[in-house]
Design the sequence.
């Protein structure tokens, strides 16, 4: 039996349609799958997969459409049943099981048509908003408001970076050089030193590279320019990590790779030379960031793409740190574009215009813009990939877990711009319209402290306009 016959056979009688409830409830599922849109979706898949697709526009019969509606309804209630505390790891498994058990032959093309057929359904989009909201992560990383007047305890956030306006100036106009007494339940007695940098930033830090056991401190950078770029003159759909192949649920090693180009190597080294200013000053002042003279290694995290590890190593080595332990994390990977990974965006846009353009209104430029907007739609599911709203939720969960499991440690994170803006969105409680266009600068070095019960602040050790050194001088 062919795939189309398999899909058709389950819903070729009025009795079967009535049995599903499709004809009498949730009419929006009935109205979501229009014949012309489904055929255009198949034409797009044919352009992507060529001869590797087993469904054609000739398969689109009334029974085929009815079964897509039933599949769409099952998909909706699958998502509705997800618990609020579901993890990305479990969600990926549940999603795979749903495809295996509900989609004929576990065919990813039918799943693509079923999911994206609901893009105009307000109930579906509202459900995705609810299930993949970043709000619960806001509650973990920024749980407090500014204390009321007269409150006994006024401290409500933690900082690894100070600006002059953060500190009370001592009598005589001198900036403070000592900070808080350690209070982490360890029983140790020590006080912070405050080391001021030339760019006006200060670092409150305990001696001997000590990090309070109730804090996780993270220094964060963006990876350098890579061979495959999402912007520029000829952008690509850039993926990081390994492609989860739905057919056998195995991650294919090497199927998605992205290394630094020469300019990316140099920018990582240049950033490392900036960071060396901090590393050397703190060490000379008796407050080293890490005790690397012993067998201690600096723990570094990043996505599974090679460019994050390469950037981190060049960055730290140029700062004089050679003992590095890098751990790649699947959860920090960029959005998975599936079958479109490493395809040139302009070629895909051209294909989209050829298929969808005749039905679009407006000028050629307006049609091209509309085609691009489809891929920016955070609910659009890439073939054998994922949606942007799923990716942002996965990344946010990974950031929070990273903080939680590194209490008492000072670590480095190197990741892509799309992931870093999710972290900024959580900490600053931004909505999608506010954070979707944020792009962290290549020259930025961020520093954050997580302490349960207090607000994390998104701070900069260096950014454009507040550089640690004059790069024009040797």
Sequence:
């Amino acid at each position: 039996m062919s795939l189309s016959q398999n899909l058709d056979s389950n819903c070729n009688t009025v009795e079967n349609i009535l049995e599903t409830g499709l004809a009498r409830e949730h009419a929006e599922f009935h109205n979501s799958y229009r014949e012309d849109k489904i055929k255009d979706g198949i034409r797009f898949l044919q352009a992507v997969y060529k001869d590797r697709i087993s469904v054609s526009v000739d398969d689109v019969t009334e029974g085929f459409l009815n079964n897509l509606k039933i599949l769409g309804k099952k998909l909706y209630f699958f998502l509705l049943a997800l618990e609020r505390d579901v993890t990305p790891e479990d969600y990926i498994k549940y999603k795979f099981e749903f495809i295996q058990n509900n989609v004929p032959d576990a065919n990813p093309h039918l799943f693509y048509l079923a999911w994206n057929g609901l893009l105009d359904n307000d109930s579906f989009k509202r459900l995705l908003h609810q299930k993949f909201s970043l709000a619960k992560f806001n509650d973990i990383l920024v749980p407090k408001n500014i204390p009321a007047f007269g409150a006994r305890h006024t401290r409500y956030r933690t900082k690894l970076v100070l600006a002059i306006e953060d500190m009370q100036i001592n009598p005589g106009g001198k900036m403070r050089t000592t900070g808080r007494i350690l209070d982490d339940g360890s029983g140790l007695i020590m006080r912070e030193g405050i080391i001021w940098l030339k760019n006006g930033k200060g670092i409150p830090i305990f001696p001997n590279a000590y990090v309070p056991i109730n804090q996780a401190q993270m220094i964060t950078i963006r990876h350098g320019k890579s061979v495959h770029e999402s912007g520029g003159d000829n952008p690509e759909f850039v993926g990081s990590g390994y492609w989860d192949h739905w057919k056998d649920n195995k991650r294919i090693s090497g199927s998605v790779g992205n290394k630094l180009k020469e300019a990316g190597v140099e920018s990582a080294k240049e950033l490392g030379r900036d960071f060396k200013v901090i590393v050397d000053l703190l060490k000379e002042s008796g407050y080293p960031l890490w005790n690397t003279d012993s067998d201690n290694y600096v723990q570094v995290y990043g996505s599974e793409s090679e460019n994050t590890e390469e950037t981190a190593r060049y960055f730290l080595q140029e700062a004089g740190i050679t003992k590095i332990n890098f751990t790649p994390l699947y959860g920090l990977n960029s959005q998975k574009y599936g079958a479109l990974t490493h395809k040139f965006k302009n070629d895909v846009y051209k294909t989209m215009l050829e298929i969808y353009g005749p039905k679009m209104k407006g000028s050629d430029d307006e049609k091209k813009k509309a085609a691009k907007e489809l891929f920016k739609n955070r609910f659009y599911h890439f073939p054998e990939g994922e949606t942007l709203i799923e990716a942002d939720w996965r990344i946010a969960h990974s950031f929070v877990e990273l903080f939680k499991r590194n209490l008492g440690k000072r670590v480095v994170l190197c990741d892509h711009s799309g992931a870093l803006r999710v972290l900024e969105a959580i900490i600053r409680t931004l909505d999608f319209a506010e954070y979707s266009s944020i792009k962290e600068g290549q020259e930025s070095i961020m520093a954050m402290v997580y302490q349960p019960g207090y607000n994390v602040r998104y701070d900069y050790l260096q950014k454009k306009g507040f550089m640690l050194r004059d790069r024009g001088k040797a």
